[in-house]
Amino acid sequence: MSDASPDVPTQRGWYADPTGLPQKRWWDGEQWTEHLHDPERNAYGIDEGSALGARAAVFNNYLWAIALLPVVSFLALTSAETASPLLGWGISIGSVLLAFLDRRQLLRDGLDQPFHWAWAILSPGAYVVGRSVTVRRRTGASLAPMWVWAAIMVVYVLTVFGKVDQAAAAVAALGG
User: Fold this and answer.
1) pLDDT digits (tens, 9 = 90+) for 117-161
2) Which regions span the lipid bilayer (predicted)?
């Protein structure tokens, strides 16, 4: 674009809509896209963020793997009397690695400043929730991975309570 006029930006970003409407439109560095931003939305805590191309998938395999990791713990809990402590470490380390790869993929797909992978050190759930909310604010994507993770955790917690209740009943039967 060597003959760019002063009205055509050279850097990708949000600019006043060339149609004259009171909104911003995403310039991808070569052309105007269909992605729009209403400045009024910032008043409600919704970021401008970045516009992702039509090919970019905000729900990649890395995120789904992190969201589904509690299933591994659940299966270990229901199939064995005691789960190995190494399983917990493996899930923690795996979630951090997957979060790092997920963030890297989002950056490659054009999402500026995605949720940081280091939150997965705190817990896989912290990353799934924070990442889902951040991507929703920037792209309008659904919160599906967060809700899937939450549903799995509810089932997991209820199962743990059931196991504790069974153990308490067994102890009471021995003492009674």
Assistant:
1) 999 999 999 999 999 998 888 777 889 999 999 999 999 889 889
2) 62-80, 86-103, 115-134, 146-164
Tell me what pLDDT residue 55 has: 42
Q: Say if 53 falls within a structural domain.
A: no
Do 116 and 36 share a structural domain? no
DSSP annotation string for 26-87:
EE-SSSEEEEEE-GGGGGGT-----PPPTT--SS-HHHHHHHHHHHHHHHHHHH-SS--HHH
State pLDDT tens for residues 74-118.
787 777 665 677 888 888 899 999 999 999 998 888 787 889 999
If asked whether residues 31 and 78 sit together in one domain, one would say no
pTM summary value: 0.64
Place of tokens 């992702």: 52
Name the one residue in this structure whose structure tokens are 């060597």. Answer: 2
Does 77 lie in the same domain as 19? no
Query: Is residue 29 in some structural domain?
Result: yes
In the structure encoding, which two tokens stand for residue 175, read together?
A: 């003492």
Encode burial over 96-113: b for 16+ CB neighbours within 10 A, e otherwise: bebbebbbebbeebebee
- Asked if 166 and 93 sit in the same domain, the reply is yes
Q: Do 99 and 72 fall into the same domain?
A: yes
Domain with 136, as residue range(s), is: 61-175
